[in-house]
């Protein structure tokens, strides 16, 4: 099975990245770099949320509501409004740490907190759509979806040993926002070197 992060990145072709760049007022290369940092952050946050029974049920419900959505429609809705359902999804993923996630991504990517928050809100429905389609195709319940996300988090941490040492850099034994941002940055660096 293809990993979720790769599937999300595959859905964002050059026109999607150009649209994101235009919305954020940055060049497409910076937008792509930021997206490659942001997607693991969103996926990691989803995995952490889905690690509890109630969290997995909530993620499953949201993913099911986004299944079958067309990327063009998602992007059009996001660019035409104030982020569509992205803000609500981010609240579900990060809770009261949503601003912290945006600030961390803004620093890591050079976008600034405001643009990083917009980017996360744009990406969240896309990630949910891909996750919902995967869940529908594989007939996954909440527990199965939680397992998929847990496996995805393991893959993010285990790609050639590259990310494993980064996922808990602060040594607290927990995967935090800072750890996820560092992992996304390292993932970006590895893909650029490949």
Keywords:
194 residues, mainly alpha, disordered C terminus
Written account of the structure:
- The protein has 194 residues and is mainly α.
- Helix content is 75%, strand content 0%.
- The chain contains 10 helices and no strands.
- Helix 2 crosses helix 3 and helix 6 packs across helix 8.
- It is globular and about 40 Å long.
- The chain starts with a helix and ends with a helix.
Spell out the blueprint of helices and strands.
Elements: H1 4-11, H2 14-24, H3 28-49, H4 53-66, H5 71-80, H6 86-94, H7 98-109, H8 113-138, H9 142-158, H10 177-193
What percent strand? under 5%
Report low-confidence residues grouped into runs of 5 or more: 158-175, 183-194
Radius of gyration: 15 Å
Instruction: Give me the count of strands.
Output: 0
Following the backbone from N to C, one meets helices and strands in this order, namely HHHHHHHHHH
Summarize the structure.
Helix content is 75%, strand content 0%.
């Amino acid at each position: 099975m293809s990993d979720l992060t790769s599937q999300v990145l595959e859905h964002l072709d050059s026109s999607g990245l150009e649209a994101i760049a235009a919305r954020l007022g940055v060049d497409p290369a910076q937008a792509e770099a930021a997206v490659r940092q942001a997607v693991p952050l969103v996926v990691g946050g989803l995995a952490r949320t889905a690690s509890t029974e109630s969290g997995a049920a909530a993620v499953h419900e949201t993913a099911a509501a986004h299944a079958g959505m067309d990327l063009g429609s998602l992007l059009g809705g996001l660019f035409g409004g104030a982020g569509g359902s992205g803000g609500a999804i981010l609240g579900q993923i990060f809770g009261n740490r949503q601003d912290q996630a945006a600030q961390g991504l803004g620093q890591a990517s050079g976008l600034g907190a405001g643009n990083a928050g917009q980017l996360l809100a744009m990406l969240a429905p896309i990630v949910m759509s891909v996750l919902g389609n995967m869940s529908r195709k594989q007939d996954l319940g909440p527990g199965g979806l939680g397992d998929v996300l847990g496996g995805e988090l393991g893959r993010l941490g285990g790609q050639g040993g590259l990310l494993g040492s980064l996922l808990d850099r602060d040594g607290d034994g927990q995967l935090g926002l800072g750890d996820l941002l560092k992992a996304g940055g390292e993932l970006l660096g590895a893909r650029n070197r490949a």
